Amino acid sequence: MKFPKVYSLQEIAKMLNCEFVGDKNFSIRGMNEIHVVEHGDIVFVDHPKYYDKALQSAASIVLINKNVDCPEGKGLLISDDPFRDFNKLTQYFRPFQSSNTSIADSARIGEGTVIQPNTFVGNNVVIGVNCRIHSNVSIYDHTIIGDNVVIHAGTVLGADAFYYKKRPDGYDQLISGGRVVIQNNVGIGALCTIDKGVTGDTTIGEGTKIDNQVHVGHDTVIGKNCLIASQTGIAGCVIIEDDVTLWGQVGTTSGITIGEKAVVLGQTGVTKSIAGGKTYFGTPVQESREKLKQLANIKKIPEILSKLK
What we know:
Layout: E1 2-8, H1 9-16, E2 19-21, E3 27-31, E4 41-45, H2 51-55, E5 61-64, E6 75-78, H3 82-93, E7 108-109, E8 114-115, E9 120-121, E10 126-127, E11 132-133, E12 138-139, E13 144-145, E14 150-151, E15 156-159, E16 164-167, E17 170-173, E18 179-182, E19 187-188, E20 193-195, E21 201-204, E22 209-210, E23 215-216, E24 221-222, E25 227-228, E26 233-234, E27 239-240, E28 245-246, E29 251-252, E30 257-258, E31 263-264, E32 269-270, E33 279-281, E34 286-287, H4 288-299, H5 301-308
Parallel strand pairs: 3-4, 4-5, 5-6, 7-10, 8-11, 9-12, 10-13, 11-14, 12-15, 13-18, 14-19, 15-20, 18-21, 19-22, 20-23, 21-24, 22-25, 23-26, 24-27, 25-28, 27-30, 28-31, 29-32, 31-33
Antiparallel strand pairs: 1-3, 2-6, 16-17, 33-34
């Protein structure tokens, strides 16, 4: 998420009421999670396991809960609770805005787009030309939709990321300030849920078609011309490259990549990154030919045992 203007390290430290290390005039342009962070961004880290990764990332500023040596060319924000303070920044730069109309005044809707009754279009939403949005769709704030997109009834674009920190008194949510971006010629079925990014974008690539009752987690990027069948669940921070096919009831773990033109057969659990151009099946995931051979051999076990008697 980029800020509306450039802020100094000192200004951000004052917002958070925390100490800082580095040039007080160090320029800060935005904030992001570790997997999408860029030069000029703030990233937060609150676990020793990830200190080095954050300090060596592209981030210009590291919001951290320990005094450490500051890498050259970076700044530090020293906080007793980086998770809490990252939420403070999200609330400051992307606060919740209520709406009392079905289509917000700040929404921009292209020529020829049809929006059916009982659909909600939030603040600062952009919808392109010749789209068809069916009834009871909810399009949360800041969502971007391209041209010639079809979205069927009951779909939700832009709900919060499923991202929590365990506290002694329960779970603390990492507040989502990102967006959903739907590119041109995408089709989305009924009752789908596509969560917005925590600070970045959840993106559905041009020409991709999504069946009914599919879930797409936060910050996932789906490429062009993919086919995703019903009841598939895609976790957060997944990269699905172009021309991938996921058949019904596929599930994925987070943070993996599914390579270009891969085909994943129904009810497969994608537990790791997989290369493109192959067909996969099973849990844990394997190439389908190998998995089907294994299943065929399992059926032979009773016959083999009977011969041993």
